[in-house]
Amino acid sequence: MQLSNKTKVVYLVILTILICAMAGGVAYFGVQANYRSSEIDSIKKALENAGLSADHDLSKLQEQVEAQGEQKASMEQQLKDNQSKIQSMEQVISGLNSRLENGGKPSAIPVYGKVCYLTFDDGPSANTLNILDILKKENVPATFFVIHSSHKDYLKKIADGGHAIGLHTYSHDYAKIYQSDQAYYEDLQKISDEVESVVGYAPKIMRFPGGASNTISKKYNKGIMSRITQGVEDRGYVYFDWNCNSGDADKNNVPASSLVESVKKSAGSQRVLNLLMHDSPAKSTTVQALPQIISYLKSQGYRFEKLTIETPPVHQKVGN
Question: CATH top-level class for 79-304?
C-alpha cells in the first residue's frame, strides 16, 4: 500500500516521540542507579572511616552492643539485690529504733482492715521454689521461718523476692533444743548466723518449733517455754505463733482440697490471720493447695503482708 506524504510525516513524528521517551527513561534509570551506587559508596566510606567493614565488623559491632545489653541487665539485677538488702536492713533499723523509743520493748504498728500473713515453716526445700513462683504470680508476700537446709542458697531467692525470713532454729530437734535454755539459744544463734551469711542480715522475727504452746518440751525440760518465751524477747526477738492452720503439719500428703477447707474453717471471721503452712520436702500438697488458698482469701477481702518486728504478734498460751 502506497502511503501519502502526509501519512509518512505523521508516522515519522510518532516514531521520533517514542525514541525520545525511551532515551529519557534510560537516562533516568541510569541516574537513579548512579545515585544508589553513590549512596552505597558513601555508607561504605563512612564505615571504613570508623574502622569498620560492611560485613565482618558490623557483626562485631552487634556483638559489642549485645554484650553491653547483658552487662546492663547484670548491673540492674545487682542494683535490685542491693535494694532488697537495704529494704530489709531499713526494716530492722526501724524496728530497733521503735524499741529504743519504747524502752526496749516491741512497738507494734496497728493493723487495719483484713490482712493475712502467709507463713511457711521448716524450709527451705525444693518446694520453696515452687511456692516462690506462685507468690510471684499472685503478687503476694509471705514469711518463711527457716531451719538449716542443704538448700540454704534459696534464702537469697526468698529475700530477693521481697519476702521475710524468720528463724525456726537450726536443727528443729525437740530433744536437743528443749533440753536446756542454753541449748535453745545456741541453736537459735546458729541458724541466725547461717541466714546472715547468705542474705547479709540477721532476722529478729522467729517461731518456736511446735509453737509457744507446745507441751512436748515438758518431756525434756519442765517450764522451759515459760522461760525462753520471755528470754527471746529480752534478746531483741519477736516471736510469732499462729491463729489459722492449713493442717499440713498433721501428716504428709494431706489432700490439697482438705488443706483448703482447713484454712476456710480456721480462718472463720477473724480479721487478722497468721496462717501456718510448711515448705519442707514432704509438703508437696501444700504447694498444690496454695493458689486456691490465696484465691479464697482474696475473695474474702484479705490483703497479704509479710511479718516484721513491728507486726502485732500472735501468741498462743504457753503450754510449759
Answer: alpha beta
